[in-house]
Amino acid sequence: MEVDKGKGEAEETRKVAEADRDTVTLKSSDGKLFEVSKEAAARLSTVLAGMIAGGSIDDNGTDLKQIGSEALENVVDYCNKHANSIPSAALISSSISFNTAPFKEPEEWERKFVDRLSHDALFDLVEAANFLGMERLLDVTCHKISEMMKGKSPDQIREVFNIKNDYTKEELEEIRQELAWAFYDD
Amino acid sequence: MKRPCDPDAMAEASRDARVVPSGAACRINALSTDVLLRAISFLEARQLVQTCVLSRRWRNLWRSVPRINASHDEFDGKAGTEIAYDVLFKNFINRFLMLRNPVALHEFRLQYNIPDGSNDPVADSRDANLWIRHALQSNVRLIEVFGGSIDLHLDPAVFASKFCFVTSMLLTLVFLEPPFFKNLRTGCTVLERLVLRSCIIYHPEISSHTLKVLTIDANCYCTFEGRATISIPSLIDLHFFPDGADGARIPLLKNMESLVTASFAFGTNDDLVDDMCQFLWSLHGITDLEFNYRGPQSYPNLEDNLEDRSFTCEHLEDRSFTCEHLVMVKIFCLDTYGEYDPLVNSLVVFLSDNGINPGQISIN
């Protein structure tokens, strides 16, 4: 504020007005509009944080052409739920950068949040979280995928995810030989 | 590498997720490699490697995961005896790390085990130290090590390398000997978070220019005599609860100008009030301070000692106590005296004399 007081005033006022809005409007690929708290969006999504900081947020709905309305609804829902769940160590985490904390197991509400999703909705959300740079949501959804694999045999995993086995019998045998140290008891 | 699912077709399908019956498309193979690696890196190491047989897309994914979970438990019961599956586990992790692609590692979690009845825990810790060194050389950011029922002997030399990028370390059931803390300071120059649980610690002279969070939990045991020294100008959050041979003295704090929250436990010993006064004087911007008194139920010389201590406090009264940011002081007493404990009382008086309002002090 100290510098350039005169000529930047109009610009400054506009920016202040923009900053005063505490929500941003996002538009899905199929044209539906969603509102989300600006604070939560900036905190949870590096892409939205960049857009907010860079002033490229559109008041009439910022186009997110890669994300369908169902996935975007889940993204917004996640942001709102996250904003409502007060972190236990709020005081500490506010002063310490998020990256230094190791992966934290999904919290109860996060677990419920991903558990209720259909198979396709889960993958849509993974892709949306990846696109928006939402590290925590990406971890929580990726963790869910790993849980769907955990303790299952390769055949069971193929079935859950509909993975087509495109190896020949000989190739599979070759792999098992090559990595015998990982398959000793099968 | 061929992909059984065409990614473009998948992207098309994802736009209309509800129309495609679940199970008809292979959504997981349509994920980008980075995202897929992130998902499977949550698996434990053995199951992770075994994903290579799923399809050609998966053949070499395990070699590039950003997170490794090496867990001894995953091998539990895979062979006849404890020694036998210990060999399987070590052989597995050695191969795994050797055949891994040289890509940066984000997180390394190790759950180790030294067999019961080990004659040489130092030698039996060697593999773990090699693996941790490997992780550090792979630019790992986050390390978690769980030592097992016989404490893993962590080799301080592992942390002396100048090129550690580790920012967070959580060590459980680990034996730490000098110069562990010194090597952390010189080697791990971006370490911000250090959490020690149930560790055995030799002489903690802890100094750092980068640590922000330091926790030494109540199951840690200090084998040294005397007093720990902590000198960390960057530290924001300190939890110091170790048990010790010497009545768990309050640590001597130096250069702690960033400290915001602190909680610590202390036992009863002759130097208690001196230590505490010194402790309080070394705090500047603290807003949340928790004392956890772990003394015996009745302390025979309490009255006598108290007089000495009061004298000491009076003697030092002209020194200023500068905790103007302190908003709440919680005192937890485990003994039956509670707030009538003369020791607690002298502490309350001391705090009040230094501008802490009685309403800001709670005694439990």
CATH C-level name of chain A: Alpha Beta
Radius of gyration of chain B: 26 Å
Strand order of the largest sheet of chain B: 1-2-3-5-7-10-13-16-17-18-19
CATH superfamily of chain A: Potassium Channel Kv1.1, Chain A
Major sheet of chain B: size, sense and barrel closure?
11 strands, parallel
User: Structural class, from helix and strand content of chain B?
Assistant: alpha/beta
- Helix share, percent of chain B: 25-40%
Rounded mean pLDDT score of chain A:
82
Distance between the termini of chain B: 65 Å
Domain tally of chain A: 1
Largest sheet of chain A: 3 strands, mixed
Would you tell me the structural class of the helices and strands of chain A? mainly alpha
InterPro entries (chain A): SKP1, SKP1-like, SKP1-like_dim_sf, SKP1/BTB/POZ_sf, Skp1_comp_dimer, Skp1_comp_POZ
Protein name (chain A): SKP1-like protein
Subunit structure (chain A): Part of a SCF (SKP1-cullin-F-box) protein ligase complex.
Pathway (chain A): Protein modification; protein ubiquitination
